[in-house]
Structure formats: structure tokens, C-alpha cells
């Protein structure tokens, strides 16, 4: 029973990074492969399409804290970042990109057993070592970078990643549509629309997610130009005019 529980906990906690190329050397199974094509925070980036490089340093301070520098990242949705991570401390550290919930779950697991990540969203470095994590931030939102080695998170090794929604929309991404129904309470709208280039979908009538700002620009029966994209796996209106 204990084993079964443990396996379940692992499977849940590891909902985080699951890629065919990812390996976990800490001894957990990869039987959950394929459940998630990509993480909430995005997906492994392609070295050829890096938009910018951010240098990150990890170290201990004289007063016993452990820190990342810089302390926060501001990223635009869709950007591919090369994190050039250096461990300038005297202890081993790691750099993990995930949601706060994902890091929390992974941290709890690491407190129970010593494991090393070797997933594309993380890098573990010995003192003096450096390495790259290349990541594409596909979704807007607030995420987190952290060191999940037991005790390090609590000593200060975590910081926010703010991914701002991309407001510069390509004209070619807009589709024409007619608002059929608005359910403001549920944050949903039904649109009779033409082809959706960003989603590679044909003309039809579909329900989309839309936030308050988007719904404010709509009324039932109105003809609109809008952009639909996938946000956290849901078809969402991301721009309207
Ligand atoms: Cu650390």
C-alpha cells in the first residue's frame, strides 16, 4: 500500500516535465510519458531561435542565505531564452523552471529522496560549473525559477518569472467573426468565425475563453476581427478589434 501511494504521489508530482528526451536519474518511472506535450510554463527551446540570453548566478551569501541573481525575470510571451547559469557558490545548486505548484510538488518529493533532475526545464550544477537551459515561454502568466535541493528554496533560492501576454499581434493572425453568444460569468464566448490561421482551423462556430477586457469589447451580434490562440491548452481570444 505504501508503495502504491508513493507511486501515485510521484505520478502526480511529476506532472511537470515529461519529454521523450527527458531522463530522471533519481529513479522515478517515466510511465507518465506523453501525458503532457508541453508544460504550462512552455517548452524546451531551440538553440537556433534564441531571442536573448540571461545570465544567472547561484551562490550562498555570508549571512547564510542562498540566492539567485537576478532575483526575477520579465519575459514576453513567445520568447525563447537562453539561461546561462553559473554556480558561483561552494555548494551544489540547481535551476528549475516551472509553475509554483509544480516546484512545490517537486520540492516535497526531493525532501523525501535524493534525486537529480535532468529535464530540459532544469540544470543541476556543481560548484564552479555553468550550463545552459534554453526555454520557450509559450504561455503568459506568473511562473517560478527555483533550486529544489532540500533547504535551498527556504534559504532564498526562488524567484518569479512574469511572462507578459504578447500584445503585438501580427495582422495575419486576425480572423473575422460574429459574436453569437457571450457568457461573461463563465468567461466564454461563442463566435461564428472564418479560418483561424494561428490555430490552423477552418471556419466554424466555436466557444472560446475570453477575459473581461476582451468581453468588454464584444456584444452579441457584433462583427469583430479577433485572434484566437491556445492558452494553457484552452482556445482563447487573445486580441480583438
Ligand atoms: Cu541550491
From TrEMBL:
Residues 1-20 form the signal peptide. The keyword Signal applies. It holds the Pfam family Copper-bind. InterPro entries: BlueCu_1 (IPR000923), Cu-binding_ET (IPR050845), Cu_oxidase_CS (IPR033138), Cupredoxin (IPR008972), CusF_Ec (IPR021647), CusF_sf (IPR042230). PROSITE patterns: MULTICOPPER_OXIDASE1. PANTHER family: AURACYANIN-B, COPPER-RESISTANT CUPROPROTEIN COPI. This is Plastocyanin. The keyword Metal-binding applies. It comes from the Bacteria. Keywords: Copper, Metal-binding, Signal. Residues 60-163 form the Blue (type 1) copper domain. GO terms for molecular function: copper ion binding; electron transfer activity.
